[in-house]
Structures are given as C-alpha cells and as structure tokens.
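Reopening this ticket.

The earlier resolution said the output was attached, but the attachment link was broken on my side. Pasting everything inline this time so it's all in one place.
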Amino acid sequence: MLNCSFKYKNMCRSLCRKSRVLQILLLIILKPSLFTATFKLLLLFYWHAPTFHSTSPPGSVGIFTLVVHVCTAREGITLADNMTQKNHQNIARDTYNSTGDSFVTHGPILEGEASVREEPYSLPSGFSWDTLDLSSPPVLRELCTLLNENYMEEDDNTIRCEFSLEYLQWALRPPNWLPQWNCGVRVHTNNKLVGFIAALPAEVRVYETDKRMAQVKLLCVHKKLRLKRMTPVLIRELTRRVNRQGLHQAVYTAGIVLPTPLSSCRYWHRPLNPRKLTEVSYPGLRQNMNLQRALKFYRLPEVTKTPGLRPLTKEDVVGLHALLQANLRKFHLSSRLSMQEVEHWLLPRENVIDTYVVEGDAGTLTDVVSFYGVSSRVLNHPVHTGLRAAHLLYVAGTAADPVDLMEDALVLAKSKGFDVFSALDVMDNKSFLDNLKFSVMDKSLHYYLYNWMCPNMSPDEVGLMFPN
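Inline output:
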C-alpha cells in the first residue's frame, strides 16, 4: 500500500509539471472520497451562488443577473460572482433547513448598497443605449419588429409569436410604469434597434409580507448578435436602473429550470378550433384522435349558461378590485393591485384583454373571468397565416360554479375567433381543467424570486399572474 501510494505521489508530481488539469483528474480517480467532499463543497457554493440562485443577490446587488440564463442558455454565458465566501457560509447556515433544499425563513438575502453606479455600463463597440419612448408609435413599431422577428418561436420553426402595438401598450404601460426601465440597444451606423429588456414596478405579497419588487419582461436580443454576449450587459444596465429606484428584489418567470424555482407550474390547453390546429400541426394535440372525433370531443355550447354574465365596464372597477383582492389573499404569492391597475389590466380592450363579470341580486360583483389574447404567425403553411390563443388571466368568484364559468369563457373565446385556450395550473384552476377537456402540455412555467428567501410553494398556492 505504501509503495502504491508513493508511486501515485510520484505520478502526480510528474503530471503536475506538465498539467495541473491532469493532476486533478488523477486525484479524482485515486481519491474518490476526497473528490466527493470537494464536489459537495462546490455544489454548496453553486447552490448559494448569486449568479445562479434565484434568491441570492450578488455583492453589487444586481437583481436580474439570473435572467441571463433564460435567454442565453444556448450561448454558454456565465457571470462572475464577487460575493465573499463568508457571505455564502452565512446564507447556507441561516436560510436552509437540514436537507438543504428549501428556505425556512422569510426576508431579503442581502440589503441593497447605499450607493449605486450612476453611469450606464459600456456596450460593445458600435452600439449605444436608448431609453425607448413607448408613447411614440414609430418606436413602438420598431419594438414590435424586433420582438416579432427574434423573441420566441416553436423549435420546429412553424409558429412564431407576433406582438401588436395595442398588446405592447397594454403589457408595458400600466399606471406605474417607468420610462427609464425600457432599455434598448441600437446600432451606431443605422440606429437599428437590436436589443431590449423591460421591467415594471409591482406590489407583491409573499406569504404574509408585502414587498415592492420589479417584474422583468421581454428580454430580447437580435438573433445575429447573441454570440456577442450582449445579454449580460442588458441585464446589468437594467439592474443598475432598478437599483437607482431603491428596489433590490424581483419576481419573474422562465420556461427553463434554473436553481431554484419558487414554484413550477404546467401549461394546459383546450382546443377551440380543432380543425385549424390539426392542419397547422399545433404542438400538444392528442395523437390518438382523428379530426372527426376531435370535432365531436371538443364541441362547445352555442351560448353561455351563467346567469348575469356580462362584459366588465368602467363602473365595475371598484367592485372588481374588492373581489380580486379578497380572492388573491388566499394564495402565498399574489399581486396587490391598485384600483388603477385593475382598470388597466382588466378593462376590455379589443384584441387584447376580455373580462366578464357576474352581478348578484344586490348589485355587487360575485364572479369574474378574464383572458388576454396572444397572436402567432404560422410559417410556411399554404393556407393558414396566423393563430390566436386566449390565455386565462383571472377567474374568481363566490356564486357561480367555476366549471360553468370557465366553460362560458371557452364559448366566448371561440365566438371571438380564438383557436386555442391556455391556462396554468395555478390558483384554483385544477378544479376545472380536466372537466373541461384541457390537456396538460410538456411545457412548464417556473416562478422565481430574486434576493428574497421563503419556503417553496405548490402551483395552487400561486396567485400571481402577469402577461409576458
């Protein structure tokens, strides 16, 4: 054994002169117990590293560092961590339980710095910052072009998300929006918009704590520039601008798993136009069902059945605000909407948002259901050029049967020309998904909090919804 050990030591010394990498690899093979301990240490560091962990802030308290991975996972982008080892040890000791997989306390990980950088971060040569004026129609059209050509499409390049001017005005200009949080990147030579990221301030309730946070939205970089690693600079600049407003927490969602989701929810969809969905090969359709059977299976009534169901009007906003706030208090993660925000997000807009309410005998609102529309472009199809999806925003009530109310929403969405209805299994949505023939999709949406620790929660404990 001693000779063997001596031989291994000599081998390691020889390899060290040639390559430290080979020395480490040999040590891993010969000393697995040491490797296991080292790996656990590295894993612990990774678990608490602010670059990757959704709730750990970096030393500079840049709240959106993690969002880089949402849009740049394929680019191999990583960010440096400048947090001290002492901070990591304190976080590990104070905020995690014995299993190391969940927070057991509530509150911020780190407080914000007293001073925040005043100058914008440097961009690669040939590019410049621009704060987009979304009240200008030409600027809004530029943003539409960037998003429609570069934001998101199906993996098989058959369906691409398509934004409208009206949708962006609704999604990015609520009553409390800040113009400086619309960060754009332009090319010097032709002034073309090639990058964008936005955030909105929001009052968020996490368990029993009300906290003002930032909601990250619409991070997009032109396809041809993604290898130039522009995304981290966009993130850092938005972080700086948000920090300048005194905010150091964020909430956001991502379609990929990052360490570590606060909650993971599944997408469900319900065909409204099975014929069209079949012809465009819409992902997630039941494979064991031919067209004739699908038409029969997904047939809906011609009229609604809930008595008193009608579109929301401006006069209903006060009653709807009270109804929503009472319902959202049931959930561990939810929005605290002001009266003005309820009016903005839920008052019907043509081709953007539809909201229907039920008025009781006493004149008070008892139920509400709302959905917003997302259009997509169908690529390379001989017949169809577009697809319209209705996305469930809120459904709540005290009087109507939730299954009947949601079936009425399906009927109304179909009458407005929507082809498919999508919903998440958040809030109380599971009570009607199966009954109304929704099918679970292979896509998930993961909720993240940045620089805020709290226990994880199940989808039915999530009441936070924001269009993206």
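Reporter confirms the inline version is readable. Residues 1-9, 11-32, 34-100 have pLDDT under 50 and may be disordered. The two ends are 63 Å apart (CA to CA).
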